[in-house]
Specification:
- The protein is about 50% helix and about 10% strand.
- The protein has about 110 residues and is mainly alpha-helical.
- Helix 1 packs across helix 2 (about 35-45) and helix 1 (about 5-25) packs across helix 3.
């Protein structure tokens, strides 16, 4: 019999990987332009991603340098932990584009 806690953890880990891929692909839609994170979140919500899961994915993708974040009003780069995602926009970095193109692999992102 599988331990329920282990099963829950495995389900969370799989959802995290799936969510990371969805957020990354959604941000890639405009590739050379910045995407408002509120709009990206709305698209991801339609696929069942909660606000907390969305924030976790944006944080991971930013820390792993797959996306670049900036403040919408000032267009200045920001530290995600110090900002509200509703005030931010994102675009893929060269590393993020390489990941989507298959040039690199990340076990925490389902492409």
């Amino acid at each position: 019999m599988v331990d329920n806690e282990k099963l829950k953890e495995r389900l969370r880990a799989e959802a995290f990987k799936r969510n990371n891929g969805l957020v990354l692909r959604t941000i890639n839609i405009l590739r050379t332009k910045f995407n408002n994170l509120t709009t990206v979140k709305a698209v991801c919500e339609d696929s069942g991603v909660s606000e907390g899961e969305f924030i976790d994915s944006v944080n991971y993708l930013n820390e792993a340098e797959y996306i670049k974040l900036r403040d919408i009003a000032t267009r200045c780069d920001i530290v995600f932990a110090d900002a509200n995602y509703k005030d931010l926009e994102a675009k893929l970095t060269a590393k993020g584009i390489r990941l989507l193109a298959g040039g690199i692999n990340d076990e925490l992102i389902d492409i």
